[in-house]
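Quick illustration for those who missed Monday's session on complexes.
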Amino acid sequence: MNKFGFTISKGRQIDYESNDRRIADYIFEKEPSFRLCIECGGCSATCTTSNFTVFSLRELNILIKRGENDQVRQNLKKCMLCGKCTLVCPRGVNTRNIVVLAKKAFQKSDEYAI
Ligand code: SF4
Ligand code: SF4
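Prediction with iron/sulfur cluster bound:
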């Protein structure tokens, strides 16, 4: 028999208690300008990768801060580190370095379980 009608939606609440914020803490410590991000999306609007894929640096910043690291890890590799986003950020966030540091943090977490 074909399935039809409504199904129960999966919960979409963010469970901050169980999220892992160590990647965010590592970036905050090494690149304090990350705190200045107001999630305006200027970086995403300029990003070359965003023009061709479903990648958004703005979204990545939000996911890092929330500690939703699985999604961050999947998206990090799409950034080409061209630095265009850094040139347009109205808050002077060193966006390129955020991506670099996130990659380093994941490497460290794999090696030493930070
Ligand atoms: S342009 Fe700067 S302030 Fe705006 S979302 Fe990107 S990093 Fe944050
Ligand atoms: S450095 Fe990465 S996020 Fe920034 S514009 Fe280039 S590809 Fe996009």
